[in-house]
């Protein structure tokens, strides 16, 4: 048997598990992860400070130590409609009100940092004044732009896609979080960057991970297992999953918080100990109380969901979807080359302006029906993949009725659904309940012909304009921060 320090997830969005914080923490603890650095910018983009208060309160019932950052990007960009906004003044005030907040959440507004935007710099200054670290988010960050981004005070990044990119970020002084989540898995590509001279500057994180994946070998435990399987020394792999994150965030590791495993290959957990006491999973723990319905859609009765198609001499921009990746391709299609296209629609659901935008996607495989969700990073407007207006409308209206979640429509009827009544992001159920329900909607989604491994996870990032290349929000198409239509 081997006694290991309890694991730490260096960056995760609890909401992506579809579990409330208390439920999420119970699942983490069962796998030996007793600390997680959680960025609640999903629910805060929907509900503002009320969402933050909910997360902090519910996390107190978790056996794992859920430490929250203060979201830096609410909204994430000016190219989307969110349900709330936090200013630089709000940031300073909230750090004072909640001294337990461990850092400023990932700074996704890279253009704002590089352009010396006063609001962005004000948030960074507020974090520095409060003595907090500043998490980063700079996909493809290299060269002078990366140097300026780091010079602003940003100390970490979880968006590296290649070993060369990770090496440059570490050499420039960043801590690189190697992400192994549900929609994005970067461990195999980044592991070659870790060597004898720099390993202390790498951590493992999940970023976005489903309850289903956590129950089936994912999470930090899964990252450690995979790293060892790919050739990393077990002691080093454990360090990336524990002490390195503690060092980065200034967390003291308690000697009486630890994990006992049977071996250093499969890392089968024998016991998880917190505060000197063996943890026993509380499968009957009380569920969180739901909060108000946050799905406020415009009238859809007469709306026709469509997007322009190319005429004989024209062409259109198409979102090229890549299975298992947050990145999309910017494609151009002409007349006669549109057979594999599927309509993507984003409907503003915060009751702010009633915006509706649609665009074409390629490579989803969907042939019939509609797949809908209120999980669409980071604004979390309602997003639907489907070609027929009546099916898109039915899916959207069903999510309005149940307070948000996931939904699949087939043959003019709701085939499966997963209610997420907490801000349209989280369930009140247990991890096993959520996993089983997700399996049902995933099976129904496959009956549409959709070939994406996890269409809901992939679809949720098709509306995130801070990730390249071409994305759709309620305001139109954007190519990595630049409007194409609006």
Question: Quick gist of this model?
Answer:
Helices cover 29% and strands 23% of the residues. The chain is α/β, with parallel strands linked by helices.
**In angstroms, what separates the terminal alpha carbons?**
60 Å
- Tell me how many strands there are: 22
Question: What does the average pLDDT come to?
Answer: 94
Radius of gyration: 22 Å
Structural class: alpha/beta
SS strand fraction: 15-25%
Low-confidence stretches: none
Can you give the helix content as a percent range? 25-40%
Major sheet characteristics? 8 strands, mixed
* Bulk shape: globular
Order of adjacent strands in the largest pleated sheet: 14-13-16-15-18-17-19-20
Could you walk me through the main structural features you see in this protein, from its secondary elements to its overall organization?
- This protein is of the alpha/beta class and 486 residues long.
- Helices cover 29% and strands 23% of the residues.
- It contains 16 helices and 22 strands.
- The protein has helices at 21-30, 41-47, 49-59, 88-97, 110-114, 118-129, 143-151, 163-171, 187-190, 211-215, 219-229, 234-240, 243-249, 389-402, 431-446, 455-460, and strands at residues 2-5, 7-12, 33-38, 65-68, 103-107, 133-136, 156-157, 175-179, 202-205, 258-261, 269-274, 277-278, 315-321, 328-334, 341-347, 356-362, 370-373, 382-386, 405-410, 413-419, 470-473, 476-479.
- The strands form 6 sheets. The chain has an 8-stranded mixed beta sheet with strand order 14-13-16-15-18-17-19-20. It has a 4-stranded antiparallel beta sheet with strand order 1-10-11-12, with no helix packed on it. Strands 2-3-4 form a 3-stranded parallel beta sheet, sandwiched between helices.
- Strand 11 and strand 12 (277-278) form a beta hairpin.
- Helix 2 (41-47) packs across helix 3 and helix 4 packs parallel to helix 6.
- The chain is globular, with a radius of gyration of 22 Å.
- The N and C termini lie far apart (60 Å).
